[in-house]
Amino acid sequence: MSKTFTPISNKNIKYRKVISFSHFYIRKHNFKSVNFIFAILGIFIGLVGGLLSICQNLDEKWANTQQLFDPIWARIIFNFFLYFTNLTNILLIVYYILFLTAYRTRIFNSNSFTIAINIYINLVMIVYWVFMFPYWLMGKMQEFTIYQIIYTLIYHLVTPIFHNIHTYANSNYPYDKNEINKNLFNCIYGKIIWFVLWIYVVVYGAILISVNFTPLPNWIFRGEIEAAIVNKSGDFNHFYYSIYGAFSNINNKCYNWDFHDLEQIKITNDTGSFTQLTMIFPIAIAFILIEKVCIALNNWLNLPKTLVKELKKINDEHLKSQRNLIEKYWKKFISDHERIFEKR
After folding, report:
1. Which of 2, 32, 150, 238 is the most buried (most CB within 10 A)?
2. How far is 51 from 45, CA to CA, in rounded Å?
3. Are the C-beta atoms of 162 and 42 separated by less than 8 Å?
């Protein structure tokens, strides 16, 4: 017995399914687009930066002058995987790979994932050049080797610029830039996105603080550094370490290091202070501003001009209605008070 054919009607079609079929299932890459080209270049540049950073940690000459740790694994963990810059650039490479290989999946149904990564990588760029770079100029950070100069420029300048071009050069990707094909699904609205964006930053902040208070075995440090630790702290078993040095050191039992001398790293008499927590506020303000700018720019680029005009018209009419209502009540207020005054 053959199956009965059910004609399609409005009741049989789910609104979401229509949207999915007409938009999500048909999108495909435009190989000539700036977005696609910069995604490939972004992977390459990101890998080069990461490789240079790892190569520096494998360099014994550098390790014997500017490095605290002796085992290679300790150098890579504490000097690579625990830095926000490196973690964010790893996340950026993962994003590019997903963008190139899984663009039709649900994760790219909107620009939310792209904008989230863009906010993080811009945070890396701005925080470094505004907050960290001055420390280097004042001689409070270690001297840069050729490896560090190259991968610092790559991770703090080149990759953020590349991702900004990838994100905003054609935010309506993969569709045309004309008004008809503007994709409203790429717009980001709703308060939940603001809280989701904070998860990554807050988790890293917790790691940054917890490492500061985690006692490390002395034997993972270089021999002369271990001796200096024991001499300074009197602790023959453990010592504390801060990822960004004085910039993030809030543990009063954790000594700061002097990286200025290329021949020898020296332990100072300075220890951490909870006053360094005040750095949270300018960084948090910077993050909020970056969020607002990136989301607003994304929404502006994805809204058709005709729709923007209509929204402005509605807003103007709303403001006009408000003014008329206020004037009405203001006139009534004056009239009532004048009547009361006349009776007196």
Report:
1. 150
2. 10
3. yes
Measured in degrees and rounded to the nearest 5, phi and psi for residue 54 equal -70, -40
* pLDDT per position as a tens digit, 26-62: 678 888 889 999 999 999 999 999 999 888 888 887 7
Query: What is the DSSP code (8-state) at residue 267?
Result: E
The H or E element spanning position 199 is: helix 192-212
- Backbone Cα Rg of the chain: 28
Q: Which pairing describes strands 216-217 and 266-271: parallel, antiparallel, or unpaired? A: unpaired
Gap between the Cα atoms of 63 and 57, Å rounded: 7
DSSP three-state, residue 110? coil
The pair of structure tokens assigned to 229 is 């630790």
70 φ/ψ angles, rounded to the nearest 5 degrees: -95, -55
The Cα–Cα gap between 280 and 336 comes to: 53
The residue type of 153 is: L
What pTM did the predictor assign?
A: 0.79
Closest CA to 215 of 258, 245, 251: 251
**Tokens 């240079």 identify what position?**
52
CA-to-CA distance for 55 and 33, rounded, in angstroms? 33
245: left (phi over 0), alpha (psi -120 to 50) or beta: left
C-alpha 238/C-alpha 229 separation (Å) is: 9
What whole-number distance in Å separates Cα of residue 34 and Cα of residue 41?
10
CA dihedral 183, 18, 100, 115 (to 10 degrees): 40
Q: Give dist(CA 199, CA 189) in Å, integer.
A: 18
Note whether 299 and 115 are within 8 A (CB): no
DSSP letters for 280-332:
HHHHHHHHHHHHHHHHHHHHHHHS-HHHHHHHHHHHHHHHHHHHHHHHHHHHH
What are the pLDDT digits (tens) for 208-238? 999 999 999 888 888 888 887 777 777 767 7
Average pLDDT over residues 159-188: 80
How far apart CA 63 and CA 223 sit, in angstroms, is: 12
